[in-house]
Amino acid sequence: MPITASLRDAVSAGVATLEGMVDTGTGLRSGATPLAVRMRPTSLDEVAGQRHLLSPGSPLVALASDRTGTSGSVSVILWGPPGTGKTTLAQAIARSSGRRFVELSAVTAGVRDVRQVMEEAQSSRDLYGLSTVLFLDEIHRFTKAQQDALLPGVENGWVILVAATTENPSFSVISPLLSRSLLLTLELLSDDDLGTLVDRAATDPRGLADAFVLEPEAREAIVRLASGDARRALTALEAAANSAIGEFAAAQAEADTAADASSGEADAPGDDSDSSADAEPSADAPAPADDADASASAPAKPTITAETVARAVDRALLRYDRNGDEHYDVISAFIKSVRGSDVDAALHYLARMIEAGEDPRFIARRIIVLASEDIGMADPTALGVAVAAADAVALIGMPEGRIPLAQAVVHLATAPKSNASYLGINQAIADVRAGKAGRVPKHLRDAHYAGAKRLGHGKGYRYPHDAEIGVVPQQYLPDTLRGARYYEPTEHGHERELSARLAKLRRIVRGED
């Protein structure tokens, strides 16, 4: 039947593409090669993102472009989140460079392995004048003693070290090795970079070989779910392709069943059956109209939709556009939930932003602003907690970064609230913009330069630390603003105590009742 033939051909093409993932090695039980591995660039030109590290003349480009392997190069440490291309860059260098390339993983290698590489590298240099590039993945997992074993080879130029780590090298790599290497920081891939990767994987013979239809909404969903991680994007694409094959196979089975049922009804005898009805149809006879229409409407390839992606990665695709209204709606609801002390709603909107792939640095910045604008001096520790959460996210990355973010959100949502500091600076700025500035009182002016005393600068200034209580009566505001008040504390949290202290300070400093 035309329907089932079309579906069967498409399924066969898709399965053949997925079977291309199988490693053709000689092992008895060769496994499937992940799409992310098959799509690794073969040269630096294919690398998506990290343009700041791949400009002409940069250390990585110089290392990769040396076809002879005889010129000197500096060792590098690649630091960045997972899926940003650390291993990819190292292997692209290996394919492009004329140097000998050795790869070790700190997870499985030991001091003996490192020393063996050093000995072989020294021999290669002395006998053939050929340097060795040692790629060491997960270097932060090496102990101090294991990292010490790298020093002679790096210092003497036996090896050019290309090390990769997801943790801050300042804390995970020994200082002597850091001082002998160039630290290069990799950034999360942009949405455009991820889109380029997904498009290439969908059409490249190494990938899905154009055997699937990738809908724009599905592409956008994969990019959003990846959150800057190339490996995650390709893994999601591969999982969605597998799901699309399953859906297509189910459609084929359903079409076969429907075709069998139609055939059975056509063969049933009628009351006025004609002998010509049993005759075989002519080879030139056109296909039935229903079959022809169905065949034309049947997709030529398995289709990857946004729903396919959602089912494949077992995650609902949130309606969230980082550049659209939903972005502003969710962050607005998040801020207002924290301000309104609804900790559960605040965590809900935080989760929506995280799951939608919002930049955690953006979230952390908003939390810092919230800590000063809406909590302020009612809980002076809130700002420290917010800044610490932002630092933690920068240090450990995602997904673990969600934990300090959540801690900061809980602290801020449950803290006493005050916007007195926020209102105070806004009113002070309004006065300055309105021209209410005035001259700085003479006793407060700078008096350290020659001739300042002749002008009366600093004359009459009272040093507060000379007073027993550390506070003295003195005018600090310009004459035009004497008596102005900008900060008016609330009775919430720490400001309740601060309010009483501030009243005493104003009585002493200004003589106010």
Tags for this model:
513 residues, alpha/beta, disordered N terminus
Short summary:
The protein is an alpha/beta fold and 513 residues long. It has 21 helices and seven strands.
List the helices and strands and how they pair.
Blueprint: H1 2-19, H2 35-38, H3 59-65, E1 75-79, H4 86-96, E2 100-105, H5 111-128, E3 132-137, H6 144-148, H7 151-156, E4 159-165, H8 169-172, H9 175-179, E5 181-185, H10 191-203, E6 213-214, H11 216-226, H12 230-267, H13 289-297, E7 303-304, H14 306-313, H15 325-339, H16 343-355, H17 360-375, H18 381-396, H19 402-414, H20 420-433, H21 494-510
Parallel strand pairs: 1-4, 1-5, 2-3, 3-4, 6-7
Helix pairs in contact: 1-12, 1-13, 3-4, 10-11, 10-12, 11-12, 11-14, 12-14, 15-16, 15-17, 16-19, 17-18, 17-19, 18-19
Walkthrough of the structure:
The protein contains 21 helices and seven strands. It has helices at residues 2-19, 35-38, 59-65, 86-96, 111-128, 144-148, 151-156, 169-172, 175-179, 191-203, 216-226, 230-267, 289-297, 306-313, 325-339, 343-355, 360-375, 381-396, 402-414, 420-433, 494-510; strands at 75-79, 100-105, 132-137, 159-165, 181-185, 213-214, 303-304. A five-stranded parallel sheet has the order 2-3-4-1-5. It has a two-stranded parallel sheet with strand order 6-7. β2 (100-105), α5 (111-128) and β3 (132-137) form a beta-alpha-beta unit.
